[in-house]
Amino acid sequence: LKVSRYNIGWGCGNLAGFFGYSLLADYPPTLGFTVSLVLFLFVAASLVRWVRVPPRPPMAEGDRAPHPALSRLTLMGRLAMMVACMVTMSQISLLHRALGDQGLVVEQAQRWAGFTLGSYATCYVAMFFLLGLWSGWVLKPWRLWWMQVTFVLGAGGFIALGLGGGLQAWSLMLSGACLGLAFGPCYTASIYYSMRLPDGAGRAVALHETALGVGNTAGPLLCGFFLDRWEAAHWGSNLTGLGVFLSIGVLVVLGLQAAMIPAATRLGAR
Question: pTM of the prediction?
Fold first, then answer.
């Protein structure tokens, strides 16, 4: 439940930002930066009282009890989450560019991209909430794996739309929603198992954040390079190219976990 609340907190911040990106499409960029600055100062001021909170490490019992599969599940979750961040941050960073050759004016492309990303964020926030209420996925990695299959639908949706499958705001939002439904369980596995470790949880969480940063940084760089080559080769629209790049990443996310889960099940996970 604590992990769920943490995830919902940052997830709602992203959600507000994505929809705000759409709503401010017709206004000067300085307005968006001003609103962001004011909100940042407000949040920073509200956190001052928490600067001197004394540390109190949790006991290694209950949901922090040791389990032989934890190290395997933690590594698996971290690696899968890193690649998933490459996928999702590529969508966030380059969807607007991918919509540029679809006949949309700049403001419309920004608005549709924002709605798509808002749908994506709404769905992963919903998954964070659900996974906080239902603990039936804990130490049962195949259940989380099946919940991530919608990754395929989201990436495939971008390919289909790029090939001329009836591009509309709602269809883009549906693809974004599928990616969000899958990202929620993938991210939750990494942070939950990192924090659950009886020993070295602080280091594990730091590695979780490091993997997240690597994925968020490498994804747009690799995807931008991929789209440049895709465009130069005239293989199709940028939206199709984006979908192909996302699909490659999605297959890695699912394949990596499918390869590592059997070892975790032999150690007692189910």
Answer: 0.84
194-198 long-range Cβ contacts below 8 angstroms, 24+ apart: 194/74, 194/77, 194/78, 195/3, 196/63, 196/64, 196/70, 196/74, 197/70, 197/71, 197/74, 198/60, 198/64, 198/65, 198/66
Q: Whose structure tokens read 């009890």?
A: 65
Contact 189, 80 (CB under 8 A): yes
CB contact at 8 A, 117 and 18? yes
Do you know the residue count of the chain?
270
Alpha helices in the chain (DSSP H): 2-23, 29-46, 70-98, 106-133, 141-147, 150-162, 169-196, 201-232, 238-266
DSSP state of 61: S
Q: Compare 65 and 16 and report the one with higher pLDDT.
A: 16
Give the CB-side neighbour count of residue 81, counting CA atoms within 13 A. Answer: 26
User: What would the DSSP string read from start to end of 29-47?
Assistant: HHHHHHHHHHHHHHHHHHT
Joined together, the tokens standing for residue 185 give 């369980």
Q: How far is CA 105 from CA 4, 25, 166, in A?
A: 39, 11, 17
CA distance 22 to 15: 11
- Convert the pLDDT of each residue in 48-89 to its tens digit: 877 776 666 555 555 566 788 899 999 999 999 999 999 999
Q: Which two tokens stand for residue 163?
A: 């090939």
